[in-house]
Structures are given as C-alpha cells and as structure tokens.
Design a protein that fits this description.
Helix content: 40-55%
Bound molecules: zinc ion
Strand content: 5-15%
Order of helices and strands: HEHEHEHEHEHHEEEHEHH
Distance between the termini: 35 Å
Largest sheet: 7 strands, parallel
Strand order of the largest sheet: 1-2-3-4-5-6-9
Number of helices: 10
CATH topology: TIM Barrel
Shape: globular
CATH architecture: Alpha-Beta Barrel
CATH class: Alpha Beta
Length: 307
C-alpha cells in the first residue's frame, strides 16, 4: 500500500480492498532517507490506533531497495547500516510485525564473506535498539546479478550467522520460480517446501509474497506479473496459497498496477484462490470485463504458443 498520503491513509487503502494484512514502505524505497529519519510520534500513534480499530494484521514493512548489507565497499555498507537502522526504528515505531529485507549483493566477493558481512551489518544496525516484537525477515531472491539469498541454503546460513537477532524468512513465488525452484508443479512445490522445512524450519517462514513471474523459470530475473498472467499461472498459485505447510502465513501481493483497478483485481484473484468470495469495492472503477483485459490474455496465449 502506498504511503504517499501518510501512514494512516495506507490503512484506509487496505480497508477499501478488504485486505486483512498489509505491506508498506516506511520511506521512499529508492532513495536514501535522510540520516535518522523518524516517524512523527503523533502520526505513529494515530496509525497504531486506526490499525487496531480495523483489525489489520500482520503489518509488513519492506526495507529500502538501496540497502546492501552484504556490500564489500565500506561506503555502501556504512550507508546501508545507517539506512537499515532507520528502517528498524521506523518499523518499531509503527508497531510492525515484520521488516522484510533483501540479503544484498556480494559483488565479486565469495558467498561466505558476504554472509559474514550481512550478519555484522545487521548486528551493527540493531545495536541498542528496542525492537519490541518486530521480526526481521530475509527474503529469498531471484538471484539476479550477484544477489545473495537465491538458495535456501544461503538463507539458512544467514539465519545462523544472525542468530542473536529476531529473524525469519519471507518467500516470494516469483523469486523462487526465477531462482529455479519448480513451484509451478505440485511435485516441485512439495519438494521445495520440504527443502525449506528441512534446511530452515517452516516456522521461520512468516510472509509469502504472491507474485506471478514475467521472467522464465530459472532465468534469475526478477519481474513480477499479475496473478494468472505470468509464467507460473493461476493453478500453481492456488496450490501455493493452499499449501498446508504455508497455512496461517501472511500472503502479500507485489503485483504491478498497469491500469486502474489492477490492485483489486489481484486481491480478488488471491481471495478466490483461497476459496473466499470477494466483491469489487464500492466506488472502484467498473470495467467491461470482470477480470484483467482480454488483450493481455491473448498476448500471453500467443507468447506461450510461440515459445
Ligand atoms: Zn518480494
């Protein structure tokens, strides 16, 4: 949900979509927040109060994309530690349940050294802070470039190295698929869940980002697509949402908004996969078709035939 009109307004956006959980940024996601950028305390109390009234839980905050806790160079790393400290402070002030962060990029350095840097950056960022009940979730990545965290084993090592901190894992269907985990089939999904349970422990998985993928299986490219219009497909998405190993997790959409209404169309698709009927919110723009535009479906069909 957008915070462009303030934190409390993001709750109203979620309410209008009849969401029961939400994810926000706590500052601009692609710019460095000023040093020590805090949440106004009156706004934070208003936000907490309204969230309780609406019963919106869990609250997930996604960290800034510039943060690279694995950075080999001192300057990026110092900026990242300061940036992540700000994320932790704002997340705690807003009463968030989870702060999702990408592990970072190792550049030319070996993976073991990168994981050590992630752990010490995290420890430095969190030093002396009261995090309350906040959990830091490292997100599985597509493995683009030198991104750390596209293997379940890498996430396991990060959790191990960060053991003193309250840590967990965030999955992302588009990232798993692009990283080469075959979640598009029943058997592949079962095997992937087994591996996560074995290596990390299913109880550490708290949030699932539900995105279809524009990018091909195993491509290591991170491109999100509307539910059912990507390479994973609606049927496979349904199996993820209803997988017994993921029961009770927060399912969050990070799908694009290409035209007005794409947000509620994806929310509705997600509820339908979970077997819950969902109606278009009052005041939402009506469209001729009830779903995504037909031309997109056709374009996809043509594409898959020519592949
Ligand atoms: Zn994600």
């Amino acid at each position: 949900m957008s915070i462009a009109r303030g934190f409390p307004e993001s709750l109203e956006l979620a309410r209008r979509l009849r969401s029961t959980a939400l994810q926000i940024f706590s500052a601009s996601p692609r710019m460095w927040a000023g040093p020590g950028r805090k949440v106004d305390s009156a706004e934070a109390s208003e936000f907490r109060l309204r969230r309780e009234e609406l019963g919106l839980a869990p609250l997930v905050i996604h960290a800034n994309y510039l943060i690279n806790l694995a950075a080999p160079d001192d300057r990026t790393r110092a900026l990242s530690v300061a940036g992540f400290r700000g994320e932790l402070e704002r997340a705690a002030a807003l009463g968030a349940d989870f702060l999702v962060v990408h592990p970072g990029s190792r550049r030319e350095s070996p993976i073991e050294a990168a994981i050590d840097r992630i752990a010490s950056s995290m420890e430095q960022a969190a030093r002396g802070l009261d995090l309350g009940s906040l959990l830091i979730l490292v997100e599985i990545t597509a493995g683009q470039g030198s991104a750390v965290g596209s293997r379940i084993e890498e996430l396991r090592e990060i959790l191990k190295a960060c053991a003193p901190l309250p840590m967990g894992v965030c999955l992302d269907t588009a990232h798993l698929f692009a990283a080469g985990y075959p979640i598009q089939t029943q058997e592949g999904l079962d095997r992937t869940m087994e591996a996560i349970g074995r290596e990390i422990g299913m109880d550490r998985v708290r949030v699932v980002h539900v995105n279809d993928s524009k990018a091909a299986f195993g491509s290591r490219v991170d491109r999100h697509e509307h539910l059912g219009l990507g390479q994973i497909g609606l049927e496979a998405m349904g199996r993820v949402v209803n997988h017994p190993a993921l029961a009770g997790r927060a399912f969050i959409l990070e799908t694009p908004i290409d035209r007005p209404g794409d947000d509620w169309r994806n929310v509705r698709a997600l509820w339908r996969l979970a077997g819950v009927q969902w109606k278009r919110p009052a005041g939402a723009p009506a469209t001729q078709s009830d779903g995504f535009p037909a031309r997109r479906r056709v374009a996809r069909a043509v594409q898959s035939q020519t592949r």
